[in-house]
Each structure stands twice: as C-alpha cells, then as structure tokens.
Amino acid sequence: MSSNNDPVAIPMIERNPNDLPGMDTSDPKTLTGEAVLSFHNISYRETVQSGFPFRKKTWVIERLSNISGIMKPGLNAIMGPQDGSRSLLLDVLAARKDPRGLSGDILINGKPRPANFQCTSGYVPQNDMVMRTVTVRENVEFSAALRIPTYVTRHEKRNRISEVLELLHLDEESNVKPRSKELRKRTSIAMELVAEHPILFLDDPTTDLDLKTATDVIKVLRTMSMRGRTIIFSINQPPYSIFKYFDSLTLVASGKVMFHGPAQEALEYFTSADYKYDSHNNPADFFLDIINGGFSSILDTEEDGHEADKYKELSERQHQVTETLSNMYTQSSLYSEMKTELDSLLEEQMAGRTPTLEEITCVTPFWHQLWWIICRSFKNFQGFPRVTAIQTIIIVTMAVAVGTTSRILRNDCTEGQTRANLLFLLTIFQVITSISAGELFVIDTDRFLHEHTSGYYSMSSYFLGKLLAELVPRRLLPSITFTVIVFFIAGIITDAKGFFTMLFTIMMLAYSTSSLPLSIGAGENATAVPTVLVTIYFAFMLFFSGLEIYSGSSLPGLSFIQYFNIPHYGFTALLHNEFLGQNFCPEHKTAEVSSCRNYVICTGEEFLMILGIDLSPWGFWQNHVALACIMIILLSITYVQLLAQREVEVLKSGWRKFQQLFKEM
C-alpha cells in the first residue's frame, strides 16, 4: 500500500549535544537524536515446497531460532559462516523479509517498529542498485529529490549532496559514470546517507572491494556512526584493519547466536573459555574458526576413521559445535546483562508484536516523483548513444529500402494494392518493434523493488513514468521516422489531416502492441518465454491479416479471430484513413488505366468494400476504440502484476538463498 500522507517517523531518543563534539544541534538538517534497535526472541521460518506439481511436499525450515539483541548508535557488525544466517538476520531486522514467517518483537527505542520502517531507514544491498548510465552525482540527486521532503529548499539539498559526496571521497568523481564495482558501492552508500535516516543497514558492504577501499568505506561508516547513526551491517571475515572499528559484534551460525556484545570483548570471551588464540591471528578469523569447529577446547575432535560417513559426521559435528557455542553464550554474563536491558525496553512498549502489514510511504507527491522518474529515464536513454545510433541507422536503411522498392514497383494499374502493401508493412514494423517492449519492467526489477520498498516512489508514479519516458522515445519516434521516410520516398501524397490521422493511428497501434509483451513479461525474471509467446501470437495474427489483403477474405470459420487480432484493428484503421475518398483513375490517366490487363479498382471506397470494411466514420473510429480498450486492459494487467511482484520476489529471494545454502552444504 502506498501513501504520500503522514509518513510514520522513527521515534528518537534525545541526546546530549556535548556527547558528540562539533555538531550543531540547532541546525535542523543535523541529526539530533539516536535510534536504538532491539530484537526480542525473534525466530524466522520459511515454508519450502519441492517435488512434482501435483505431488509437492511441504515442510517448514527454521532459519533463525530465538535470537535476541540490541543495536545502539555505532558500528554493529553481524558475522558468521557462509550459511545465510547473517544476511537473513540483517534482512529481518531491516524489514526486508516476508513478515509472515517472523515471530518475536523488533523495537525502535522501546516502541514497535513502524509499518513503514523500510522507508524511514536506509538499506544498501549487496548487489548495487545504482544506474550506470548516469553520473554519480545524478544518482545521489535522484535519491535526494525523492527521499528528502519537498519543503527542504534546493540549496539545502545541494549542500547535503555535496557534503555526502565529500565524505565518501566522491566529490572529484561526481561527474563520472559509476562503472567500477568500487565506485558503484560508494555511490550506493551515498544514496542512502543523503536521506539522513537514523538507522542504516548494509549487506556485506566490503564485497568485491580491495582492502584499501573496503577500509575507507568502513572508516566513512565509522564517521557517520559517531554522528549518532546506528549502522548495522553483515560482513564476512574482515581483516583486523576493519575489525578494529567495530563497536558491537554479533556472531551467528545455523540461525543461532554464538556471541553478541562489544566487539573488543569478544576475544576475551572466547579465550576465557580455553580457546587458544595466536596473537598473530586475525580476531575475525579466530572467531570463524571456532564456529566452524576448528578449535577443540570444548568438543572432542579425535578422528574416528570412518571415511564412509565423513559428510554425515561433519554435519553432526558442525551441529554439535553450534549447539555448544549457543548454549555457552546463553549461560554467559554477557547474555544475562543483555537480557536485563532488553526486558526493560520490552516493558516500555505499548503494543505487543511487530506489525504484520508493511506500508510503503513517500515523502514527496505523485507529480514530483513522476517528473524525476521521467527525467532519469531520459538520461538513461541518452546513456546508450552507440546503441541509439545503430538503431537509427537500421530504421532509416529499412525505410529507404521499403520506400525505394515501392516507388519502383508503383504503377497506375496497381496503385491501390501498392498503398495497401505499404500500410501492411507499416503494421508489420510496429509489431516487430513492439516485441522487445516486454523487457521494460524486467531489466530494472531489482532496482525497482529496492527503490519502491525504500520509499523513493509509489507504484503508480513508477508505472506511468516508465511508460511515458520509455515508450515515447523507443516506440513512437522510430515509428514516425520510418513512416515519414517511406511515404516521402514512395511518392505517396496525402493531405495534412490524413497524415496526422495516420500518425495517431500508428501511435495507438504501437502502444497497443507494446502492451501485450508488457502484460506477459511483467513479474517474470526473464523475457525469453514471454518473447516466444508474443512472437507466435503476432505471427498468426499477421498471417490472418495478410489473407484479407491478398485473398479478400479470411479462412472459413475463423472470422472470429479478427476480434482478438491487435494488428487487424490498426491495419483496418490505416486502410480506412488512406483509401476513403481516393480516386486512382483520374481523367488524364484514362488511357494508361485502359491498357491494364486486370480489372483496376478506381476508388478507395471500392477497395474498402471488397475487404468488407465499414465506410462510415464509426467504421474508422471503432478500431481506435478497440485498440484503446485492449491497451487499457493489458496495461491494467501489467500494473496488477507489478503490485504482486514485490511479495513474489521476496518469496523467490528466500527460496534462492535456501537453494544456494543447500548446494554449499
């Protein structure tokens, strides 16, 4: 559900301005509070199905088990082996997972997490979502324009953008397109920091970065945390140069907590349990070795020599290690102190459970969102100059070839048929160019889900903005270019009214044919199958439309197909507009016409009557009404599929992570 009114704000705890020197608390742009996130006995279960369609087996997997903790302003790291637990815990805390599998309480400053928490907190996914065809600054400006309220002046927004770019050392690269992984990662973080949310989540922010860049990123996050931000991130085996900046550390494995507390106390915690630590070893490596069963102070590690059951024994051993470390933590003083603090927060809350219904709220109005979506889409279109140039050359070449061929073959005996053939070629061109429209909402699926969930824009503004910005330059302009060139070279002269009516008909045909692949492709992860289905449909429909031109009738018993034939409506309207009122046998060409072998159709009305086309004005406009109805129905289906796509993608994401985990086991 989207709403632009009264977004829910995260409750803030006021802090002493003396705690963080150098901050001006009188400045409304400066963060003046802190957010403490606590989670109480949370568990997460996923329902998994497998097997044949009618004999599927269903079982429930507990991915997180009775986890509690508290994340305060500072750097809060979540570490663990490659079993998916750390990313899952991060996503659950960030409200990025299906809430139906969640039990327990997640609180912000002792109050239930708001329904629009996704929109009032920042989230940087592991796979960057920046647009590579626009510059770093333009990416950050897009985030600022849609995530900062409109009452904030442009000057204030520009200052905030410049400050974030300078903080991330992006000021010198702000006009560069983010091609490298390192630049895209820093741009992704900048897009979240510019919104100045009190809580920021990051999924493996150092992935694919070299050591220096990764350290610089953590230093920037450290600086932001010192300004009162609560930074929560998952990370895999960081070096000491990164680990030393952590304030809080949470070790998770197999859905259970092995340690949760101050990062600098983790080493003492494990060494006090008789785990031998080499001073030359990296603490993060030491912790992961313990979780993976590499140390033997608690468990008996003697080999039993049964190689046949090695995998089973390894799995059982890992389970035993996890259970032992989890039990050791729940019996520790760290756990007792944490539970005491959590219980005091839990008692303060007024409502009992985490909201099950999530809400997407936006801080900017619909038209503001629409304008920025259209602007970014046009910039993205301009980001492929070579592709655009090649497409233009192909379209112009085809138009010149078709127009030249028609001019050569054109004669007084076949004037009517030549024009009909040209209109049929125009129809075919619209159909062929519309097939690729199905990728419009597919190629940006991940970016759309991230931005919509984060409160950039509503579904309606995104849908309308993409249609206006993408279909006009990619569908309408090539069609107009092709039509004008063909008719000019072919020497077919028509009046201004007829020409613009033809362009309007072509526009309706282009949008209607593009709506079909959109309705089939929306909600899919790939365009291969939808493209095949659309191609088969259009091939059959063009075949039946061609029969009417060259045989004068359709196949017996199959005339009903014309009601489901999108190209038929456009082709019929083009014929009606072009032929009505035409005379192909003027008096000064009587001799030329009389020398023709076959019977010559002299009037456009006669040609239309042979094809069974209604000559009345309604006979023309009924085709446009049909195209409009088809377009509205198909676009409505597309919109409904986009509405359902978010929930479906959440479920698919969970299933993909489970499959990856199963393969790694």
From TrEMBL:
Protein keywords: ATP-binding, Membrane, Nucleotide-binding, Transmembrane, Transmembrane helix, Transport
Transmembrane segments: 389-409, 421-442, 476-493, 499-520, 532-550, 625-644
Region feature Disordered, mapped onto this chain: 1-26
UniProt topology in membrane: Multi-pass membrane protein
GO terms, molecular function: ABC-type transporter activity; ATP binding; ATP hydrolysis activity; efflux transmembrane transporter activity; riboflavin transmembrane transporter activity
Domain (ABC transporter): residue spans on this chain: 37-279
Primary localization class, coarse: membrane
Protein name per its UniProtKB record: ATP-binding cassette sub-family G member 3 isoform X2
Compartments reported by the entry: Membrane
Keyword Nucleotide-binding: yes
PANTHER family, per the entry: ABC TRANSPORTER G FAMILY MEMBER 28 (PTHR48041), ATP-BINDING CASSETTE SUB-FAMILY G MEMBER 3 (PTHR48041:SF70)
Entry's Gene Ontology cellular component terms: plasma membrane
Protein's organism: Cricetulus griseus (Chinese hamster)
Family, per entry: Belongs to the ABC transporter superfamily. ABCG family. Eye pigment precursor importer (TC 3.A.1.204) subfamily.
InterPro entries reported in the protein's UniProt record: ABC2_TM (IPR013525), ABC_transporter-like_ATP-bd (IPR003439), ABCG_dom (IPR043926), ABCG_transporters (IPR050352), P-loop_NTPase (IPR027417)
Keyword Transferase attributed: no
